[in-house]
């Protein structure tokens, strides 16, 4: 199995992605590190710990950055995830002792026998911390698979030009794209098409266990532009791409992040035509196999409650 660390701001779609990771034999989940984003760190960190308890994960959970590197005008996504981050679903509070997040990530990367994939599904503040404080360690990461940004017709869900995770902390995102390690960017151009509703999760619903109950509640309280076909499960697409890269199609391009622009701060600028003259630095997701993605969530997460 592929060793993975999840960096996350749980978050409804984050929770489902963590469940998918926990249920997938292709993955050896080494640890979970929380970051501020959808809600504040005082909620994302306990949420990550409580979820690890629910899933009976015997792995460390870290408490990372409490806010963006420089930006001071970002707001949580209470409207999408509720004030508690789980759409009002209360898990028993965890008694785990949380480790400082960035040192934990560095330790797990150093201790792993095989190179680690970091799946970052929140703002990239912890990742920038890793690059700044542990650059040698960060170079050992096999790949960063991030949910963030967008391209073509789907650039923004927070401003016309910017996706939430990148908008929240564009300076950290820019550091990652500038660092020169393999990156897969799973952006809104793909995740807004990864629509999932309970109708696609019959096995999961039928399993009726604790994870299923939580998913059922969250899906009813997840306000990510609901459609007839369900809601965008952004973060699970990144997780699915980490466990099976063939589930997405990608193109290799140079990507940079606008962290100054008046109208476009937080925009991921993908150089499709090679105007910049820069070497490609990112595998940009262009499409997802939706039936396979839905089936993966349905069958895998249903098994969690049977363990
Ligand atoms: C991203 O922002 C958050 O609200 C979601 O959890 C996801 O990571 C989508 O833009
Ligand atoms: Ca997230």
Share of helical residues = 25-40%
The largest sheet, given as strand count, sense and whether it forms a barrel, is:
10 strands, mixed
Low-confidence stretches: none
Average of per-residue pLDDT values: 95
Question: Which percent band covers the strand fraction?
Answer: 15-25%
Overall strand count: 12
Which cofactors or ions or other ligands sit in this model?
beta-D-ribofuranose, calcium ion
Q: Termini separation (Å)? A: 18 Å
- Strand order within the widest sheet? 4-3-2-1-5-6-7-12-10-11
Structural class: alpha/beta
Based on CA atoms alone, the radius of gyration comes out at: 17 Å
Overall spatial form: globular
N-to-C SSE string, H for helix and E for strand: EHEHEHEHEHHEHHEHEHHEHEEEH
| Count of discrete alpha- or pi-helical segments spanning 4 or more residues | 13
Describe the structure.
The chain has helices at residues 12-22, 41-54, 78-81, 101-111, 125-133, 135-139, 164-168, 170-179, 188-191, 202-207, 210-220, 234-243, 290-304; strands at 2-8, 27-34, 61-63, 99-100, 117-120, 143-147, 183-186, 195-196, 231-232, 248-257, 268-271, 282-288. It is globular and about 55 Å long. The strands form 2 sheets. A 10-stranded mixed β-sheet has the order 4-3-2-1-5-6-7-12-10-11, sandwiched between helices. A two-stranded antiparallel ribbon has the order 8-9. With 307 residues, the chain is α/β, with parallel strands linked by helices. The chain is 37% helix and 19% strand. The model has no long low-confidence stretch (mean pLDDT 95). The chain contains 13 helices and 12 strands. Helix 1 (12-22) links the parallel strand 1 and strand 2 (27-34). The structure holds beta-D-ribofuranose and calcium ion.
């Amino acid at each position: 199995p592929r060793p993975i660390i999840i960096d996350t701001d749980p978050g409804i779609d984050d929770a489902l992605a963590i469940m998918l990771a926990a249920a997938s034999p292709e993955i050896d989940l080494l640890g979970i590190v929380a970051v501020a984003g959808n809600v504040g760190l005082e909620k994302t960190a306990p949420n990550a710990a409580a979820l690890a308890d629910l899933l009976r994960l015997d792995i460390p959970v870290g408490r990372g950055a409490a806010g963006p590197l420089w930006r001071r005008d970002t707001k949580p996504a209470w409207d999408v995830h509720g004030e508690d981050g789980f759409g009002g679903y209360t898990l028993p509070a965890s008694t785990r002792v949380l480790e400082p997040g960035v040192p934990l990530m560095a330790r797990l990367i150093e201790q792993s026998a095989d190179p680690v994939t970091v799946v970052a599904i929140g703002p990239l503040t912890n990742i920038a911390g890793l690059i700044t404080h542990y650059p040698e360690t960060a170079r050992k990461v096999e790949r960063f698979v991030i949910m963030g940004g967008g391209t073509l017709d789907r650039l923004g869900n927070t401003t016309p030009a910017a996706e939430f995770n990148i908008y929240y902390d564009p300076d950290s995102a820019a550091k990652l794209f500038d660092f020169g390690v393999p990156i897969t960017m799973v952006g809104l151009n793909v995740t807004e098409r990864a629509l999932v509703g309970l109708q696609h999760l019959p096995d999961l619903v039928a399993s009726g266990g604790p994870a299923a109950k939580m998913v059922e509640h969250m899906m009813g309280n997840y306000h990510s532009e609901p459609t007839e076909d369900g809601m965008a499960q952004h973060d699970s697409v990144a997780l699915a791409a980490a466990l099976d890269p063939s589930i997405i199609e990608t193109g290799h391009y140079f990507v940079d992040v606008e962290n100054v622009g008046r109208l476009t701060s937080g925009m991921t600028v993908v150089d499709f035509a090679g105007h910049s003259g820069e070497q490609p630095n990112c595998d940009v997701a262009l499409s997802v196999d939706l039936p396979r993605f839905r089936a993966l969530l349905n069958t895998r997460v249903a098994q969690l409650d049977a363990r």
